[in-house]
Design brief:
Layout (H helix, E strand, L loop, with lengths): L9 H27 L6 H33 L3 H5 L1 H4 L11 E7 L4 H18 L5 E7 L4 H18 L4 E5 L6 H13 L5 E4 L5 E2 L1 H13 L3 E5 L3 E2 L5 H25 L10 E4 H7 L18 H11 L3 E4 L6 E3 L5 H17 L11 H32 L4 H6 L12 H30 L1 H6 L2 H35 L18 H7 L1 H17 L4 H21 L2 H9 L6 H4 L29 E2 L4 E2 L1
Parallel strand pairs: 1-2, 1-4, 2-3, 6-9, 7-10
Antiparallel strand pairs: 4-8, 5-10, 6-8, 11-12
Length: 617
């Protein structure tokens, strides 16, 4: 059976998404109310119901994004075009006429690593035959002078290797505005020389074919302001990185297909691996400095959502296209590196609470920022829900405890209509969280080519089970971390945007124990409370207890490259970017002799900044 959604209006698409989200939320809240109130509602139970309602909406949004994506991927002859009409109108034979800048902002990064990725993108664009339409920029905000010197040497070597003057390097002495300020300064100098720009992170790689198609889409759709691709994770060696890499590869694309289906031209921007129309971007996307003091003031740390909202306000569309082939990025190698990045993102997203009330923003732009806030606020909401549950258990005057039986708790194995409803609700929530992962894996297994590229049917399903199990175990760990993030921000604690760890490295158990102290306290306290107040409910609380108590060990074990590579030898947690790497990725999987001993080499090149058509210092 084939599904056709061509010509379905944006409003109809949004109703297809919103109706099941709201209906499922209403049903779940009704169920929860009936579970809590057989003999009337206490204040703690009313608090539980409110917290549950707010949290469940977030789960329903994730679930229905995934389900819509699965339906389109499974039944549409052209899933990408069904999701994003901008793809349906793409003429891949059209010439690339526009001038486009490939910009890579860097901040205290490993210079050789960044330059090799820019080299891979350059070579791929060269093969399209349209290299003359592109220029490449390394935009440095590096504050470490020794790294800055290495950047200049690597830039000179890259230009020498490629035999071209198309690779331009510029370093700012002060990184005002962070990455957004770096891009804005590029716009002030050279933005008028280009129709479009493709923004890369220091760990990004994109294929020339995909970049050429993005330019064609921009040429054919003059109202498109930003087109965002799905960046596929690559080159992970640690077990943690491989788990994240497989999970992102198996699930992310059905989610993005669903998102693209109902958001259409009101999509979002994620800061890299996207093409941007330069004129309206630099005219309308100046970020405000938030007034006041504390972490929610000053320069906006998460610039991308705001820039998408501003260019949408200027009348241009933002498209999320579910295209991952040819768009790649790397991910944090360990859980602690992931958490460090997540803390910065949390602060940046909470700053959006001061932006989403601005005049003139589209409803979906406000939705994107609210969703970003909710992605972190959901954790303390669930935490408060658990706290309210404990308070409810301690309330000996609660008639519902007597109704369910002494010490029964919310989830008990004693038969009864309300207990059946509670168990049904619990299982429904778990299914909503887990089912999209299985559906993503199932879709891959149906395709013989993809199945082979993921290591075969057995390896694919075993990998899916491993990644899902780890996700379940780690969910309460991240809940504790993110609750701490939100609380610390509300208490005025800010963080800096430091250099990101990109290379695999082991985490010592002592470091893991120190960093997971809060998780250990949470897991131990919850275990003690359950054993004291409702021991027969222990089975239902185990998913919340096991992860936090084992989190230091999990962090140390999953930081191992040796264990990650052992999984790969058995055909587990494999992805096509590893089993059949593209011409862009293959050179990055091993050291390149052409880059040996570049740092400190005599005659590596002058300290200079190259510009388009002119020299600047």
């Amino acid at each position: 059976m084939e599904l056709s959604v061509d010509g379905v209006a944006p409003l109809a698409r949004r109703l297809v998404f919103a109706v099941p989200v709201l209906s499922m939320t209403a049903a779940a809240v009704t169920f929860m109310y009936q579970v809590l109130c057989p003999m009337g509602m206490t204040p703690a139970e009313w608090g539980m119901l409110v917290l549950f309602s707010l949290s469940f909406v977030w789960i329903a949004i994730w679930f229905w994004n995934s389900m819509l994506g699965f339906i389109i991927q499974a039944f549409s002859p052209n899933p990408g075009e069904a999701s994003s009409p901008i793809l349906a109108n793409l003429d891949r034979g059209a010439p690339v006429r526009a001038k486009t800048a490939i910009v890579m902002p860097i901040y205290n990064e490993e210079p050789e690593r960044a330059c090799r990725r820019l080299q891979a993108t350059f070579r791929s664009i060269e093969q399209t035959g349209y290299l003359d339409r592109f220029e490449f920029f390394l935009l440095s905000d590096t504050t470490d002078l020794s790294i800055a010197d290495e950047e200049r040497q690597c830039h000179a070597h890259l230009s020498e290797l490629l035999g071209t003057g198309k690779i331009h390097y510029r370093r700012r002495e002060k990184n005002t505005g962070r990455k957004a300020g770096n891009i804005a300064e590029f716009g002030q100098r050279w933005g008028k020389d280009f129709d479009f720009m493709v923004v890369l992170d220091a760990d990004s790689v994109m294929s020339g074919g995909l970049i050429a198609d993005l330019v064609r889409m921009m040429q054919e759709n003059p109202d498109a302001g930003i087109i965002q691709t799905v960046a596929r994770p690559i080159l992970s060696e640690t077990l943690f990185g491989r788990l994240q890499q497989f999970g992102g590869r198996a699930t992310a694309e059905i989610v993005n297909t669903g998102v693209g289906f109902w958001q259409m031209g009101d999509g979002n921007y994620y800061g890299h691996n996207a093409i941007i129309r330069t004129a309206p971007f630099f005219e309308s996307c100046d970020l405000p400095i938030l007034k006041g003091k504390g972490p929610l003031s000053g320069e906006i740390m998460s610039h991308d959502f705001v820039e998408a909202a501003y260019i949408r306000r200027a009348g241009y569309k933002v498209w999320n296209v579910p295209v991952g082939e040819g768009s790649y990025e790397e991910i944090p190698p360990t859980l602690l590196d992931y958490v460090k990045r997540d803390r910065r993102w949390c602060q940046g997203n909470l700053q959006h609470s001061r932006v989403l009330i601005e005049k003139g923003l589209s409803p979906l732009s406000r939705f994107h920022m609210a969703s970003g806030i909710m992605s972190y606020v959901a954790s303390p909401l669930w935490f408060l829900f658990l706290l309210a549950s404990v308070v409810n258990l301690l309330d000996q005057s609660n008639p519902n405890l007597a109704y369910h039986g002494p010490g029964s708790g919310l989830f008990t194995l004693v038969p009864g209509d309300w207990n059946v409803m509670a168990i049904t609700l619990f299982c429904t929530i778990m299914a909503m969280l887990i089912l999209p992962k299985f559906l993503g894996t199932f879709l891959l297994a149906l395709n013989a080519r993809e199945r082979a590229r993921f290591g075969g049917a057995v390896g694919l399903f075993a990998s899916g089970l491993a990644e899902t199990a780890m996700s379940v175990i780690m969910a309460p760990v991240m809940m504790v971390f993110q609750t701490g993030f939100v609380v610390s921000i509300l208490l005025g604690v800010s963080v800096k945007w430091d250099r990101q760890a990109r290379n695999g490295h082991s985490v010592a158990i002592a470091e893991a124990l120190r960093r997971h102290a809060t998780n250990l306290v949470f897991g131990g306290a919850l275990l003690a409370l359950v054993l004291t107040l409702a021991p027969q409910s222990l089975l239902w609380f185990l998913p919340l207890i096991v992860g936090p108590l084992l989190s230091p060990l999990i962090t140390t074990v999953t930081s191992s490259r040796r264990l990650g590579n052992a999984f790969a030898r058995f055909g587990l947690l494999m992805t096509p970017e590893e089993t059949a790497p593209s011409i862009e990725i293959a050179p990055l999987r091993k050291p390149d002799p052409a880059w040996a001993n570049i740092i400190g080499r005599a005659g590596a090149g002058p300290i200079s900044v190259a510009a388009v058509g002119t020299a600047a210092t």
